[in-house]
Design goal:
The protein is built from eleven helices and nine strands. The protein has 262 residues and is of the alpha/beta class. The protein has a single domain (4-167, 183-261), classed as Ribokinase (UDP-N-acetylmuramoyl-L-alanine:D-glutamate ligase, 3-Layer(aba) Sandwich), CATH 3.40.1190.20. β7 and β8 form a beta hairpin. The protein is globular and about 40 Å long.
């Protein structure tokens, strides 16, 4: 795919306002990640204002990591606005297989047609109704085990499904790509995976969902590779990662993206 740099350029030129309903752990790092990437983040989850704000935003990301009944309702309200207005939104079904409550939330959100679903292999398998080994947010299944489930889920929802792992798998149910960018230090910093959802949402604004999602994952992974070169461990990696997100250019991404058809 030769559009990764173009997608990054378009995202930064748009500087989209991304509405994020995410977990307590992720809010600060996610806001910093989006600012470094070139987007404008907002963290809004109160039921009294969430629908009104969703009308103002250009994209939405929803992460069910620390849910409660009020937040679940707010997620559905915001996603409903996106569905009504035709604006893109991303669902991260964190630990969906762990509890019935999470499964009920995700079932409701799936009915609202997320443009992109991103999760680890265990989450995608659970979301697709297939038994998985994962506990909580951790994945015990390899990416390859979720490829068929991802394609089926993409066809069922009409969106894109991205399975995160050492090599990411992204499909719209017809075409599929693999992204091999990334570094082993990335999972050692909490909420970097959660923060990726907002970056994907930003890339989706005004761009075709499949290439935009592929480009977002390649950009994020390449920033991780660049950050690791300057890091001594997870602490310095987090700082270097923000710098790398900010510094990467579209030409850097075109040269460094390791994307292949699957």
């Amino acid at each position: 795919m030769d559009t990764t740099g173009t997608c990054l350029h378009q995202m930064r030129a748009t500087a989209p306002l991304v509405h994020n309903i995410t977990n307590f752990v992720a809010m600060n790092i996610m806001a910093n990640v989006l600012l470094a990437a070139g987007a404008s983040p907002a963290m809004v989850h109160a039921r009294d204002e969430v629908a009104e704000f969703a009308h103002l935003a250009q994209a939405l990301s929803v992460n069910i990591g620390t849910p409660d009944p009020d937040w679940a309702q707010a997620m559905a309200m915001a996603a409903g606005v996106m569905a009504e207005t035709g604006k893109p939104w991303v669902l991260d079904p964190v630990g969906v297989g762990a509890t019935r409550f999470r499964q009920e939330i995700c079932a409701r959100l799936l009915d609202l047609g997320p443009g992109v679903i991103r999760g680890n292999a265990s989450e995608i398998l659970a979301l697709a109704g297939i038994g998985a080994k994962g506990r909580g947010a951790d994945a015990a299944d390899p990416v390859e085990a979720a490829e068929t489930a991802a394609r089926d889920l993409a066809r069922r929802t009409g969106g894109v499904v991205a399975v995160s792992g050492p090599v990411d798998y992204i499909t719209d149910g017809t075409s599929a790509y693999q992204v091999a960018n990334g570094h082993a230090l990335m999972p050692r910093v909490t909420a970097l995976g959660c923060s990726l959802n907002g970056v994907i949402a930003a890339f989706l604004v005004g761009q075709p969902p499949l290439p935009a999602t592929v480009a977002a994952l390649a950009y994020y992974g390449l920033a991780g590779e660049r950050a690791a070169q300057a890091a001594a461990g997870p602490g310095s990696f987090q700082v270097a990662f923000l710098d790398a997100l900010h510094a990467l250019t579209p030409s850097d991404l075109d040269a460094g993206a390791r994307v292949s058809r699957a």
